[in-house]
Amino acid sequence: MVKLSKSMFQVIILVLIINVTKNTVNGGPAPQYFISSPQNTTVTAGHHARLSCTVGNIVGTCQWARDGFALGTDRNLAGYSRYLMPSHQDDICDLTIDPVLPIDEGVYQCQVSGGHGVAPISSAPVSLSVNSEPGQPYIVQAMEDGVMEVKEGEEVELQCESQGGRPPAEIQWWDGEGRRIVSDVTEHVRRMEDRKTFKTVSTLKFKPLAGQKIKCSAHNDAFSEGKVSDYLEVVLSGQPKLELKTLEDGDSVKIFCNNEKTLGDTKFKWFINDVEIFDETKSFLEIQQFSKSYDKSKVKCSVKDKRNNDVVIRVVELVYKQSIREPKALPKTFKEITDRDSSKRRNKKKQTMFTCIVEEDIAVEPKYVWIDGKLRDMAKNEKMNGTDGKKKYKCKV
Fold this sequence. Notes:
The protein is mainly β and 397 residues long.
């Protein structure tokens, strides 16, 4: 019996290891492995997504699974029109989704089948998250009618909803002047039926002191610009609805107190920004040569009720609209205005009364005057004397 020395035994073991390794690399079943594997990905709905998967020593066939459900080995992924494995190389198994929708959100895994003594392999599961823009917000109480009538002192409760956002939408409330309303607002969020997106409902409670307009907006972290609802107009019982009148530079308009309906011998009172216009008692107010200076001015008309109280029956807000046409020429001097009007009344002896409109509390001279029911610009160098009495002026040239 031949006895092997310790050193010779070590040489034999080394030769066997080399032979096994040589057979595995050159002729044996080398294992499959991932050169690149998918990563957690977040995309915006409507955009393109690509999950990477490249396989080394590939023997089997690629396929993808979503939430544990295999999508199939056909690279065109029949039945999934937006899904595709676009590469023609067997070892590149990338998955593309175009466009991505909220329903595509889930857990994805790249799988490769085995064969010829080679074991199948699967990548680590990864998440595809889809950000969605919040849906158009709307005020529930404005769905049928854009006006809500309430009693003075009555508490109003409004709900604004936005659906389909991910992350959930944040809803904000705004008044007609563009100021944010933050008091007594609560917000609730719940998942939609698709379990992928969210519905946000915001509730606003307040007691209106006067008629006002309310709107809401919705945005989330992925879509910061957001969307805005239509206005809901809240009016107090017995008060007229606010109307908007859009005018351009140089426009003229007649505003009728009762919307062009006759009220007999009724005497009317007219106000602009709550300042009474003296000696205007006709059923309409004529504004000529409108300009941007009057933007957002409110014109009101009142009549006497059965108890001889003044009741406002119409409110019109003048809204300036930028014109692309040349504005109508304004008279150059105040004298031209008076001369033009006096030429129409040459045979009439009538004292002209001017009511001055101040734009600021600190104003000491009027910039605009009402002359016989018509709004006129003051020339820069004309001087007029006036006395302050609750911002009501009688002026003389």
